[in-house]
Design goal:
Elements (H helix, E strand, L loop, with lengths): L5 E5 L3 H13 L4 E6 L18 H4 L6 H4 L2 E5 L2 E5 L2 E4 L4 E3 L2 E4 L3 E3 L12 E2 L4 H10 L5 E5 L3 H12 L3 E5 L12 H11 L4 E3 L4 E4 L3 E4 L4 E3 L2 E4 L3 E3 L2 H5 L8 E2 L11 E3 L4 E5 L4 E3 L4 H15 L12 E6 L2 E7 L7 E7 L4 E8 L2 E8 L5 H9 L23 H4 L9
Parallel strand pairs: 1-2, 1-7, 2-3, 7-19, 9-16, 10-11, 10-16, 11-12, 18-20
Antiparallel strand pairs: 4-5, 5-6, 8-17, 13-14, 14-15, 20-21, 22-23, 23-26, 24-25, 25-26
Helix pairs in contact: 1-8
């Protein structure tokens, strides 16, 4: 690779960090510039709702990361790619020879009357969390729209700030896309110990001090958090002629439809090894792996992205849950274990002798091993009846996979 080549990365979250580390592992001399609109960088976005953590826990790379890796930082917003240059909001242009788009996702904003009010917020980054903290002073009642991963973290965040919370969810249970009816009810019961949970309903209007539901019910709300989810941020790619579907389209080397432009993380759709198709998988470990793949390829070490699958891990007011793969689809044999008294629920879905999905509620200690078995497509027919036993462990994994291929992954 030519020393004079200039690599530009748009975005500064985990995918960008991973790309930088891979590039520097391969080449200490290449010019790297990161363009980011976030003033606060190298922090863990999943932790923005945590009120009682130390800076060392919040930042996953130290303050000197960019300086140590000889990376130039530009704090601005990229708006267009044109003639091998990034056009910034400030009108400045930045030349590149190779580019990585690590621009993440953006919140879904529903079409609700009053959604643009000053009391309505999203919660996807550090700046969002700070705005909410400032607005929250002397206020007591809050409504959260949506009861998925972002919604539940928002609820814990607001509870820590002293709010009375109501969560409004369109579906008949929390996390409906990944939890089945049984686990969804267990999670709903846990949420109701800490917040009012309204299911099968939606908000039609937001006012300064209340929300009006489709059912006609009115709920006091001085503060509203919109937590329906995120979609890939593909705006700059579409404007610049890069192929997109739901996310930015990439090949197995994370290259977009334009040569020398790569894309990684929550903004792309890439291989889902369980579904056998390309789709958006906005989770932290996948973004990290994709960043590493792009970083290698852009610095001359040809590396293929082998694909991934969806995983979710969240703590719901002290109740841990993990979902893996196709956890809520009727596609094969289901093995379940339920303990209502201790609030434990486990389900493993097997198709063609291989695990394709799993749900763990309350007891998650074997989730890492199951993740490894899924990732490596291990035939579990000889020990499937033992998968949910208390003593199930690494010893069950076939010897040929133990040394290198099935390394249990703790989520």
């Amino acid at each position: 690779m030519k020393k004079k080549e200039k690599i530009v990365i748009i975005g500064s979250s985990v995918a960008a960090i991973s790309a930088i580390e891979s590039i520097r592992d391969n080449n200490k001399e290449l010019s790297i510039t990161v363009i980011t609109k976030e003033k606060n960088i190298s922090y863990s976005k999943p932790l923005i709702s945590h009120l009682n953590i130390t800076p060392n826990q919040f930042y996953y790379r130290d303050k000197n990361f960019y300086k140590k890796n000889n990376v130039s930082l530009i704090f601005d917003e990229a708006v267009l790619l044109k003639k091998n240059s990034v056009v910034l909001k400030s009108k400045r242009t930045v030349k590149y020879s190779k580019l990585i788009l690590a621009i993440g996702g953006k919140p879904i904003i529903p079409d609700i009357k009053g959604i643009n009010g000053k009391n309505v917020f999203t919660l996807t980054n550090f700046e969002d969390a700070n705005k909410i903290r400032k607005f929250a002073k002397n206020k007591k009642n809050a409504v959260i729209i949506g009861c998925g991963m972002i919604g539940i973290k928002a609820a814990e965040f607001l509870k820590g700030l002293g709010f009375n919370i109501t969560i409004v969810e369109l579906m008949n249970r929390p996390f409906a896309s990944v939890l089945d009816e049984k686990s969804g009810k267990m999670v709903a019961d846990e949420i109701r110990k800490n917040a009012k949970l309204i299911l099968n309903n939606s908000i039609v209007e937001i006012k300064n001090n209340e929300c009006i539901l489709k059912s006609g019910e009115k709920i006091s709300a001085e503060l509203v958090i919109c937590a329906i989810g995120v979609v890939p941020n593909i705006d700059i790619a579409k404007k610049s002629g890069i192929k997109t579907n739901r996310g930015i389209v990439v090949d197995s080397f994370m290259m977009t439809s334009k040569e020398n432009i790569y894309a990684v993380g929550d903004c792309v759709e890439a291989a889902d090894i369980l579904k056998g198709e390309n789709r958006v998988l906005p989770i932290w470990p996948i973004a990290y792996r994709q960043g590493s793949v792009a970083g290698n390829n852009i610095s001359g070490v040809k590396t293929k992205y082998e694909g991934g699958f969806v995983m979710n891990s969240v703590d719901i007011f002290g109740l841990p849950i993990i979902t893996i793969g196709m956890s809520n689809e009727n596609i094969g044999e289901e093995i379940t274990a339920v303990d209502e008294k201790t609030k434990k629920y486990k389900k493993i879905i097997i198709n063609d002798n291989k695990i394709v999905g799993a749900i763990f509620v309350g007891e998650i200690s074997r989730a890492g091993i199951v993740t490894g078995l899924i990732r490596d497509s291990v035939d579990v027919s000889n020990f499937k009846d033992d998968l949910l036993k208390e003593n199930f462990g690494y010893i069950y994994v076939p010897k040929e996979f133990r040394s290198k291929e099935v390394v249990p992954t703790e989520i």
